[in-house]
Amino acid sequence: MLLTIGAFIVVLGVLIFVHELGHFMTAKAVGIGVPRFSIGLGPVTPLSFRRGETEYVISWIPFGGYVRMATKEDPVLEGDAPEEEFPEDKLFESKPLWARMLVISAGVIMNVLFAWLVYFFISAAYGRAEDPTTRIGAIDRERLPASAATLADLPVGAQILRVNGDTIASREAIRAAFGDITTSEIVIEFANHPPVTLPIDGLSIDARIETLAAMPPLWEPRIATVQTGSAADDAGIRPGDIVLSIGADTVTGWASMVGVLRESAGDTLTLRILRDGEILTLTAVPDERTTRTAAGGEEAVGYLGIGPNVPTQRVRIGAGAAIVEAGRRVASDAQNVWFVLSNMVMGRISPRELGGPVLIGQLSGQTARLGLEVFLSFMALFSVNLAILNILPIPVLDGGHLVFLLIEGVRGKPLSLNLRMRLTQVGLAVLLGIMALAFTNDILRVFGN
């Protein structure tokens, strides 16, 4: 518990500080007065000091922070009005539009830069983690596009040797070969199986993505993570367990096991588990979840709440490669966060998946127990998450303020203060609603439905 609380404080404190530091440093750089720098919201704690024109404080509500800039306008959620008066040339609204936009964007930029620096450190210190799996698990025939139908008869365990002439030594190499838009087709050479040519050109990105997703790697059916409050948790499944069989079906790999679970929503399943050299028999009932099909429709699938044990190998890389690798990981995180958010808005992902402070605390503690690299990776991912969330065009958030400034640039004058305040109140209501939903989901995860 102490480790979880400590990790939670570090994650939230560091990332809030990094975000607000971006606003603060940029405001100072363009000549805007800053009467207060706060970590946290609401009333100020006794932990405060003043240096120059700025009061540095820690406030009681830990979920956020703010940089109180000199202005004649009334801020929202930024404490009481400053005691001292600032000259006209140090007011936020006196600065040119580009400077104000830069100040508002600086928090998001700092969160992205922090994530990049963390990933650079990880890549330089630990190297690049690669999945050495080049064997293919169970083929998802329903997901295969018509142009990849020749893969339907591929046997489980088929090993990929080369793709378009390039030798394959990892799952990442397979992914990179499929992502090469300069190629007109995909030629896959296997060990002990005839080569297959897929007539999918490099610009048919969706078809290539679906093909790759339909031929998952042959991972062992070892469970690495168990979601708190999930069907697996209720069944007594624990990290490190190896699933030997489900009912009468022998499990040959992670992909085949997931295939059985997806078709068993609401069914009572008997699982034979290998744990610490002992074979156990457990009973589990997968929850029903709605997911998108390859054709764009929806289907109900079984969901147990477990994660795979992805095999990894370390590849040492130089500083130049670490720079590129860090950028790739930041871009990948941003893409994944945006995918989840957009699909949640469109109703493809349930709002029940949204997590709040309790889930953040749990993940902070879990990743801290797994070591410094995993903990830092979680902080980087969460930093990208905060950047994406803050750039959303919701008044109160940085993205909402940027929208106001963009409108000012188009109109040649700002929206009226009264209109901005009303829109900000609406944005605040939306934000509080999202926070209430996230906190409710946290409670349901802890105490059950």
Question: How is this structure best described in words?
Answer:
With 449 residues, this protein is an alpha+beta fold. Among the domains are: 96-127 and 317-449, no CATH class; 146-213, no CATH class; 223-292, Pdz3 Domain. It contains eleven helices and 16 strands. The chain has helices at residues 2-29, 97-126, 171-178, 205-213, 231-235, 254-262, 319-345, 357-369, 372-390, 398-411, 417-447; strands at 36-51, 54-68, 128-130, 159-163, 166-167, 186-191, 193-198, 223-226, 242-246, 249-250, 269-275, 278-284, 287-292, 298-303, 306-308, 313-315. It has a four-stranded antiparallel beta sheet with strand order 5-4-6-7, covered by helices on one side. A four-stranded antiparallel beta sheet has the order 10-9-11-12. The protein has a two-stranded antiparallel sheet with strand order 1-2. β11 (269-275) and β12 form a beta hairpin. α2 runs antiparallel to α10 (398-411) and α8 (357-369) runs antiparallel to α9 (372-390). The chain starts with a helix and ends with a helix. The model has no long low-confidence stretch (mean pLDDT 88).
